[in-house]
Structures are given as C-alpha cells and as structure tokens.
Amino acid sequence: MLHRAIGIFDSGVGGLTVLKEISEQLPGEDLLYLGDTARVPYGTKSAATVQQYALESASFLVDRGVKLLVVACNTASAVALPALRGRFQLPVIGVIEPGARRAVSSRNRRIGVIGTEGTINSGRYERAIHALLPDAQVFSAACPLFVPLAEEGWAEHEVARLTAAEYLQPMIEAQIDTLVLGCTHYPLLRRTLQQVLGPQVTLVDSAAETACTVAALFREQGLARPEHGGRRSVFVTDVPTRFERVGWGFLGCELGKVEQVRIG
Amino acid sequence: MLHRAIGIFDSGVGGLTVLKEISEQLPGEDLLYLGDTARVPYGTKSAATVQQYALESASFLVDRGVKLLVVACNTASAVALPALRGRFQLPVIGVIEPGARRAVSSRNRRIGVIGTEGTINSGRYERAIHALLPDAQVFSAACPLFVPLAEEGWAEHEVARLTAAEYLQPMIEAQIDTLVLGCTHYPLLRRTLQQVLGPQVTLVDSAAETACTVAALFREQGLARPEHGGRRSVFVTDVPTRFERVGWGFLGCELGKVEQVRIG
Fold first, then answer.
1. Which site among A159, A161, A242 would you substitute to test the B interface, given the most B Cβ atoms closer than 10 Å to its Cβ?
2. Into which CATH architecture does domain B97-206 fall?
C-alpha cells in the first residue's frame, strides 16, 4: 500500500503547480497526474458537469492503484469533493481547505478570494473561511481572463496588469490584507497581482498550501513510501502537444513523456 | 423534406452570430441550434478530438431530421468538414469557404486571417484563399484571448484594444487590406479591430458570408420552406445558465427557451 503513487488530477495544465509543490515536499513519492484536456476548462461549466468529469478523472487514477487522491483543481474541489469522498475509499485532498486555513491568518480579517466562475459561484472558499473565522469579511471575484492570460504566456504583460487592476479594484477599495489565489493557474500571475495590490497584501497560493497539507497527512498517518521512488507519470485526455508546450511554464522543468488516454 | 429545419452547431455561444445572420436572411426557415457547452472550447483541442465532437454534435441534429447542416464553428469547419460530409447524406456548409471567397476581393492581395489555435494550425483558410487567388499573401495569427474577452463582455474594453494591437502588429506591418474574422466570436470585437487596424482594412465576417452562402444555395436548389415557419430551437450540452447569460450579447435579442441534452 505505501508503495503506491499519489494520484493528482486537474482539468488541464494548472494542476502542475500542485504536482510541482508536492514533488518538492515529498520527493521520494511516485506521482500519477491526469489532465482532462479533452474537456478543459472546468471553471466555466456547471457543477453537475464538473462532478461527472471529476468522478471519471478520479476513477482513472484510482483504477491504477493510488494511495491518496489530490484534486488539484479549485473548481472540482469546490463542487465535487463530497461526491469523490462518497465514491472512493481513500483519502481525498482538495485545494480549498488548505488555502482557507492559511487565509485566516489575515490580520484585519478582510480576505479576498479570486477564482473561476465555477469556484466563486460555489461559495466554497467563503464557507471554508467563515467556518474557521466567523467574523471574517470575504470579498470574492471571478477572474475568467486570468487562465487564458497565463496559458498565453502573458502573465506579466501590460494586458495582464490592466486586467488585474480592473478585477481587483473592489478588493483594493475594501482594503483586504490577504488574497487567496483560488485557481491553480494564478500562481503564474503572482508578480502582477502583487504589483497591482501592493506589498502589504499577502498572497495565498493554494497549490503550495495543499502540498503542505499532503505532507502533514503523510507524517501523521505514516503514509510515506518506505524507500525512494520519485517516478512521475503524466496522462492527458487529448493529444499532448499543447499540454507539453504550455505545461512547461507551469512546472518550470521538462514534463517527460506525456501519454494520451481515454476516460469517461 | 422542405419543411425540415436547418441544423446549426458550434462548440458554444459563438455560432449564435451565424444563427442570427441566417434568421435575418432566411426568416421563414425553422432553425435548430446546438451548442456543445459541456466540452467548449474546440479551438484549443486537437483535430482528432474536434472531429469526434463535431460528428457527435452533427448526429444529434441529423437525428432530429434537418435538411441542411451548418458548421457554425471555424475550428470544426477547419478540421472536420470532410468527416462530416463523408458521414451524412445532406448538404454540409462550413464557415471557411464563404469567408475565403469574400477575402479574395482584396485589392493588394495581402490578406490577414485570425482565429483559434486549431483553425490557424489547420492552415485551412490559407489553402482556401490560395485555391481562389494563388498569388495572395496570407498572414495568419492565432488570437486565443479574443474568445474569453468577447465572453467577458470586454470586446470594447481597453484590455481588448491593447490585446488586438499586440496580435495584429505583424499584419499592420505587412500592410494587409483585408482581415478575415476566422472565429464566430470575433464579430463582437469588430469596432476594436477596426480601430486598431484603421479604416483602410476591410473586415470579413465569416458568419455573415456563411448566411449568404446558405441563402444562395436555397435559391439555386429550391430548398426554401414552402410556407412560413421561423421557429427556433436551441439546445446545449451543459446547464443552460451561462449560455443564456453570455448568448444574449451574441444574438442581440432574447434566446427563448434553451434545453439541455446529452450527446456522445
């Protein structure tokens, strides 16, 4: 059981930011990653459709025998976690609780959350933050242009700065001191967001927080692999060409072989 | 047979620009529209995946008994037209040939084409233009941010202007006199594109040209409905909420009832 891999899935390349953090914190573990690129994005689709896609993506990884499942997609974490935990008999970690836990160290309790339409409409971050800090004021905004900007390689382009200034204006006015990057694409925009918000605002990266949560669970429950593995296998549901090209920017290093599979 | 509807499909809302033009030119015809919103967009996906999705979308309409099929999606027209014509025994009209036919009235024979990655990578516009005007110089560019900008309602925002200036710079330098809007979302950006390119550049709207092609075919082949129909039925593959909200901007009027269906 301990020799099994960690399974990680996302709608596309964004979850590679989570894979990267997990590989850094748990370098001895084998990792299986699935990007559902034939049906990407999840962020603009309905909760029912995302639940179906998430169950199919997770089934693919569970069938290959993983010891833990990481939902490296904020939208799927927001709407499909109960369905995934109901279906599979293994620990399922989403990216929302870890991000919320970090966010509540806000000093002025004015917390911003940005994400896809699906994530923001679900209200899941808001509920997770309020469960930990009932008197927090949460300011949420869907930022649909951030994903295509990150994928275009324009994360630090003037267009990204102007877009961020427009999306974040209400949060600047609300004087938030903490902003949760509630989409795995957004860490690529970190410099631009920090520039627009100013240095007094703390950015919470859900990908890094999720990796910390996984590492803590491994320590507590003795889930670590007894000897060093560290192999990585990457699967996608569409032809890998675009994923390989765009994924490089998310992982910061070579992806290795990417294999196309059919699911659903 | 003549009483049957015209079937129109797209990956999402963009094809509503084609539906709108066809309703204006052929107001007496019944129209069936399918937006494959559970798998939108097609423009960033591989040719093989788009072919499969296009065959499934078309089958849905053909099973409901249409007399003509309009592929109101540039990406699907670019990569799936031969597969569709091979599979179905009815006229299949794509948006690329009509756009190319209008583009070759360029005076200086320097023609720009913009579209999704899938459309541009296919080289279909370039080949269609060269088949009609062999010495044309064609300058192509994928503009992945235009679709999310149009869907965000930012078609005339400063962000759209700056994005267009960056994408179109090589075409301005190449002194094109004609630009093909090779994606059904792009007519929404018409004012911004014209402003960036200047009044001397003619914009070719594939949606309007396709409607002209359909109307001409109806006249030539006597396909018109004998008495007035004019009913419109709209289907989508995901929950209709977002489609209804965004679609309004594409159609310029109420969509009416939108029904969710399963395909594939």
1. A159
2. 3-Layer(aba) Sandwich (3.40)
